[in-house]
């Protein structure tokens, strides 16, 4: 068990070990020993890259200027009549902000509080049209996020909204209704920032979108909502300090990453399920899907690498996926993401009527007890069937603990990528469809790609 210090997240790996699920499916000491030499080489590589400034996701959590700039922008809008904060972005430019929002505010926040928060991370024309019909542009701030500043989906949203704001409120209103988060030097959005004078934050050139949640990409929306971004990044730094150890077993990012690589390559578990036993962490599992899929799903020569990440929600998916996970193909390793305590719980009253006697065992308990019981029982039932599983425990979901989780999985993903022998920072598999889209939409220089269609 790691992460026993107060306020630290931690793993329980008992049910992924061979002692619990058998040597064919579980991880034995000998399995770990075989991988340790390679794991130590990866640690040395990570150290060198960090010293050389090549790990932007690590550097960004130590850059105090990022917090200062983000808080300046939040202060600029403080006290203004703002009903809506709207993120225009996709992929890594949206998933982190959504995960932060869902983790740290009530699921009914938008029904009771202003400003409301929306992430428009798709270009379904019906959804976007209906949103524009519903929102009061005069009381809305749009946060436009694109690392490259050329993302077609985000640019299309931006052009539509910009035109409507100008038509309704005038060109001078742009400064009151837009914040741009993009490359410091390049791209269409950076050029527009220079021309229009709207507020902006930089995304460091070496920081990929899926690793950017602890940068301005995630911090600007969070700060505009009044979330504690200092605590968020302090939590990330606390986890980074814990992960500086060279000991693979004592380093939570390395140990968990190694277990997942062994499960994939040695045990045939190439589907990695992230089962959030907290509604507040379901979007975190969504963020994880992109981080893992884009970082690790790679082709190297003729070899294909990468686990398939799947998200699930507890207890809901006990009634939709558990049957498959326990009795279907044994090709999965499951991570339960649990919370030890909540800021609120609900008492279950006694079942007083005779007709409800069979429900009497629930009376006098708390809903949280039932939630924990179902999580524990599901983990045990899977282990009993030889299905390896891990639990990541949050003491509570706070800015401090969610900051830890973001950093831990970013580092774990890099560690796994290097063990696989792939580059966790690129995504060549998505480039062709982008180029074909450009060709279909008439972008100059991409005409040749239309012929494929």
Describe what you observe in this structure.
The chain is of the alpha/beta class and 453 residues long. It is 46% helix and 14% strand. The chain is built from 18 helices and 12 strands. The protein has helices at 18-21, 29-51, 56-59, 64-77, 95-104, 109-112, 125-134, 152-169, 174-177, 188-196, 216-224, 229-242, 252-265, 282-296, 322-327, 367-384, 399-420, 431-440; strands spanning 10-12, 84-88, 116-120, 140-146, 178-182, 199-202, 271-277, 298-300, 303-305, 308-313, 332-339, 389-394. Strands 1-12-11-7-10 form a 5-stranded mixed β-sheet, sandwiched between helices. Helix 16 (367-384) links the parallel strand 11 (332-339) and strand 12 (389-394). It starts with 9 loop residues before the first strand and ends in a 13-residue tail after the last helix. The relative contact order is 0.15. Residues 1-5 have low confidence and may be disordered. This is Glucose-6-phosphate isomerase. Keywords: Cytoplasm, Gluconeogenesis, Glycolysis, Isomerase. It is found in: Cytoplasm.
Main traits of this protein?
single chain, about 450 residues, alpha/beta, Rossmann fold, 2 domains, 5-stranded mixed sheet, 5-stranded parallel sheet, 18 helices, globular, disordered N terminus, cytoplasm, G6P_Isomerase
* CATH C-level class of the largest domain: Alpha Beta
- The CATH topology of the largest domain turns out to be Rossmann fold
Tally of structural domains: 2
Q: Superfamily at the CATH H level of the largest domain?
A: Glucose-6-phosphate isomerase like protein, domain 1
What's the architecture of the largest domain, going by CATH? 3-Layer(aba) Sandwich
Oligomeric grouping of the chains? single chain
Structural class: alpha/beta
The strand line-up of the biggest sheet is: 1-12-11-7-10
N-C termini distance: 53 Å
Q: What pattern of helices and strands is seen along the backbone?
A: EHHHHEHHEHEHHEHEHHHEHEEEHEHEHH
Tell how many strands the DSSP assignment holds. 12
Q: What would the principal axes of the Cα set say about the shape? A: globular
Averaged pLDDT, please?
96
Which percent bin holds the helix content?
40-55%
Number of separate helices: 18
- Rg (C-alpha, Å): 23 Å
